[in-house]
Structures are given as C-alpha cells and as structure tokens.
Specification:
The chain is an alpha+beta fold. 46% of the residues lie in helices and 12% in strands. It has 6 helices and 3 strands; from the N terminus they run H-H-H-H-H-H-E-E-E. Strands 1-2-3 form a 3-stranded antiparallel sheet. A hairpin with a 4-residue loop joins strand 2 and strand 3. The protein starts with 5 loop residues before the first helix and ends with a strand.
Length: 145
C-alpha cells in the first residue's frame, strides 16, 4: 500500500468500527480502531507475528499519525496479542469479508486469494481459534486487500 488516504481509512473504520472491543473499560490506552488499523496494514505489508506488527507501527509512526489519533503512541506487541486473542473471530471474519467486498467493488474483480494463520493467536485458556488472515490481489488496481 504505497499511499493511504482518509477514504481508505474510512473503509476500514466503516467495516471494523462495528466490531466490539473485547477489552474491559479499565486500562484502554489505545483506541481500538487504531490497534485494528495498524495490525491490518502491518499484515498487508507482510507482518505475521505480534512483534512484527508492533515494529511496523513504530517504524511508520510519523506516517500513521497523519491518519490515526494514537493518543498513547504505538501499542506494544503484548497489546496487539491481548486484543486479538480476545476478539470474536467470527465477528472479525464478517467485518473483513464485508471490507474486502466493498473494496473489490471499487477496484474491480479480486482474483488471487491467499491466507495465513497469525502465530500465537490461538488462546488455549478460552479455546478461541487462531486468527486466520486472508489477502486478495485486485488485479485491476494492483492492490492487496
């Protein structure tokens, strides 16, 4: 993703903004949509571990601040892991599919699809399944979704 626009972020917030925040009310240092946006952008750019997602955020902080509030800076890898381990995976999947559908309507047919499981996202204590990320290549727009 070479250029991010406010319109692009509006698509993310429109679809993922409905996802319930799994955190308790206490200790919320970071906006939920900021955490989701950084994680999604990092995974699109090839991150597949929580440490890589946090490193992506730190390395792009100046850029991200143009679009995100980041009231307490970039979340730590532990914050990303904690939030995503508590997410309702089915709700996340529905938000993701909705987002990809809308983007594919804007940019044309989505042809190539690939998926991966985020390491360390399986929560044995609550028996939540691992988070599966899917990317789709929009040939007409040369864009990874």
């Amino acid at each position: 993703m070479s250029q991010l626009s406010n319109k692009s972020l509006n698509y993310l917030e429109k679809h993922f903004g409905l996802l319930p925040d799994p955190r308790g009310l206490q200790g919320r240092l970071h906006k939920f949509i900021d955490i989701l946006t950084i994680a999604i952008l990092a995974v699109i750019c090839g991150a597949d571990e929580w440490s890589e997602i946090a490193e992506y955020g730190r390395s792009k902080e100046a850029f991200l601040r143009q679009y995100l509030e980041l009231p307490n800076g970039i979340p730590s890898e532990d914050t990303f892991a904690c939030v995503f381990s508590r997410l309702d995976s089915e709700s996340f999947r529905l938000c993701f599919v909705s987002w990809v559908r809308e983007i594919s309507e804007v940019f044309g047919d989505v042809v190539n699809i690939d998926g991966k499981v985020l390491r360390g996202s399986y929560d044995t204590a609550s028996e939540k399944s691992a988070i599966c990320m899917v990317s789709a290549w929009a040939n007409a727009a040369n864009l990874v979704l």
